[in-house]
Amino acid sequence: MACAIEMRKALWAFNEERTAQGQPPIEVGLGICNGEAVSGNIASADRMDYTVIGDAVNVASRMEGLTKVFPCKVLFNDGIYEAVKDRFPCVYLGEEYVQGREAPVHVYGISDDWIRYHSHSYHIQEPAPEEL
Q1: For residue 25, what are the contacts with CB-CB under 8 A and spacing of at least 6?
Q2: Contacts of 124 (CB under 8 A, 6+ apart)
Q3: Which residue segments constitute the domains of the chain, with CATH numbers given?
Q4: CA distances from 69 to 64, 72, 80 (A)
Q5: Adjacent-strand bridge partners of 86
Q6: Is there a contact between 64 and 107 (Cβ–Cβ < 8 Å)?
Q7: Which tens digits make up the pLDDT trace of 41-97?
Q8: Fewer CB within 10 Å: N-end or C-end of the chain?
Q9: Residue 122: pLDDT over 80
Q10: How far is CA 107 from CA 13, 81, 121, in A?
Q11: Which pLDDT score is estimated for 121?
Q12: Mean of all residue pLDDT scores within the chain
């Protein structure tokens, strides 16, 4: 989560430079999900790609897509919420049906206002790996 917060801050700094040069700002949303995934190289005679697949990857991708319609640009699922709820002010945004899932996904976020105005005053401590 700390990385996502720092990514948002870096994007805002980057956009300040862009707008100062007369370029339009860009927007990036982040979808975070915990769960199992398989990673590895997929190759043919002409090309090699590294990829990850699995339900967690699909849900994270769908969460990222939801950042276009939700006010929060960092969205995450129940598992991430449980891991970070005592460290960050999470906002419950509701349930959403996402492609590839029959049951709805609970969507949580962290507001850009908190990231922009308050995250500097918090000591952001990531949980130990065994907590995730």
Answers
A1: 15, 18, 19
A2: 1, 2, 5, 87, 88
A3: 2-8+30-122 (3.30.70.1230)
A4: 10, 9, 20
A5: none
A6: no
A7: 888 888 888 888 898 999 999 999 999 999 999 999 999 999 999 999 999 999 999
A8: C
A9: no
A10: 27, 9, 25
A11: 59
A12: 89
Facing residues of 50 across strands? Answer: 41
- The band of 123, judged by pLDDT with boundaries at 50, 70 and 90, is low
Pairing of strands 74-76, 48-53: unpaired
pLDDT digits (tens, 9 = 90+) for 21-45: 999 999 999 999 999 989 888 888 8
Q: Token digits for 13? A: 């700094």
State both tokens at 120.
Answer: 């500097």
**Which distant-in-sequence residues (6+ apart) come within 8 Å of 9 by Cβ?**
115, 116, 119
> Does position 110 have pLDDT exceeding 80, yes or no?
yes
Identify whether the C-beta of residue 102 lies closer than 8 Å to the C-beta of residue 113: no
The token pair at 86 is: 């005592």
